Amino acid sequence: xxxxxxxxxxxxxxxxxxxxxxxxxxxxxxxxxxxxxxxxxxxxxxxxxxxxxxxxxxxxxxxxxxxxxxxxxxxxxxxxxxxxxxxxxxxxxxxxxxxxxxxxxxxxxxxxxxxxxxxxxxxxxxxxxxxxxxxxxxxxxxxxxxxxxxxxxxxxxxxxxxxxxxxxxxxxxxxxxxxxxxxxxxxxxxxxxxxxxxxxxxxxxxxxxxxxxxxxxxxxxxxxxxxxxxxxxxxxxxxxxxxxxxxxxxxxxxxxxxxxxxxxxxxxxxxxxxxxxxxxxxxxxxxxxxxxxxxxxxxxxxxxxxxxxxxxxxxxxxxxxxxxxxxxxxxxxxxxxxxxxxxxxxxxxxxxxxxxxxxxxxxxxxxxxxxxxxxxxxxxxxxxxxxxxxxxxxxxxxxxxxxxxxxxxxxxxxxxxxxxxxxxxxxxxxxxxxxxxxxxxxxxxxxxxxxxxxxxxxxxxxxxxxxxxxxxxxxxxxxxxxxxxxxxxxxxxxxxxxxxxxxxxxxxxxxxxxxxxxxxxxxxxxxxxxxxxxxxxxxxxxxxxxxxxxxxxxx
Length: 555
What we know:
This protein is an alpha+beta fold.
């Protein structure tokens, strides 16, 4: 989230769903408990959510969940599964609403001055941390929180990318200063932030967890274990966390934007068939095999009324490290980009569950342009390019790293591997790495080739292009560098005319695609089942605090 590197497994047997505030795997076909499509009790009609029984009687929402990939500390969030919980427990100056618009959170209002380089935030006077003492949040808490994020001792993986435009933050992160000079406490309820350069998307960046406020008293009183029961300001507080079993978030009765209608949200982390549990009325949110997608969409399936489809502001792609042989040769990269049939794979293996990515930014992103074109499938041209490269006939060993267990590789990756073998005569070794190690390897830039994914942290082209491809970005894990792209991204970063800014990003995106350091494959779509008694669940294209809007109310 934002860095929201999705260490996503794309496969025939499983694909990732990113919606409803939870990341979970559902079986696609040819594997899993649900691939025959049969309902748990043999009668789908009897299991429809209109007869969901006791699960709709209370105020506890039960959903599938994922174990967080890091501790529940806002400055350490670098993945979707952790962000899902952190955005509910903590809060910042501003937030994103279900329509993905920036709205006041702890700041009730703000002004911009100095040519867009100074923001002054006026805080609410009724925001308290989750604790029995009801400690009020002040401007000093925000200064502490930003300086804590910038402290190099805390090694935040995202602070430079999202808050690096604040005056003095880079100096603090590089240990050249003892504080962040651009964050100033004017009085108890007023904080001023000075920027190095004007930014049209700065407020959006502040919606990312690294900018959230934390309780200094709690952290300094229990530096080692405070994340086990963190005191945030969000609509929910952590009630229970049993790894690999469940996470329970209880409502914050003093939440300043309106107390949640739910008493709690229970994230079930254990494995098992999500569809079976959904049909047995054990969970409110479910998934289904892709083999049933047509029947669900057509209304022929008993669960059709529960179906929701939400295009995600996210992208799957392969990263080819331009600093590692043979991908330091652009002709090799282009050959790989042209030599697997994404459309056929999506139709045959994935039952059209995804959308084939023509570019990097998904269509839901503001500034999206239909003019962006990826390399089309052309195995003849691909083979020719490989023969023209300086590695013709002498390719080194190539390893494709992906996030996963040591079990059999996902069928989707196997299919793509076969396409490269058939069309290029290249043998690719598939190597699974656990999610934490995958992220570490990614940050170090040691990989040769990776199966990657990125989901938007906020709705803006900068979050896809500037964050991942500017050569000076701390999130440029691909080690991509193109002087023309850098110039366009730098100009876009300071352009305050949104139309002009989006055009600059469009130009940069096409050049990035042409360089083939990344090969976009699919834009994901969420396919979920939601009980009819679950009301007002936002269908947001990215992770936002959403459960305070939800109500359980049977028809």
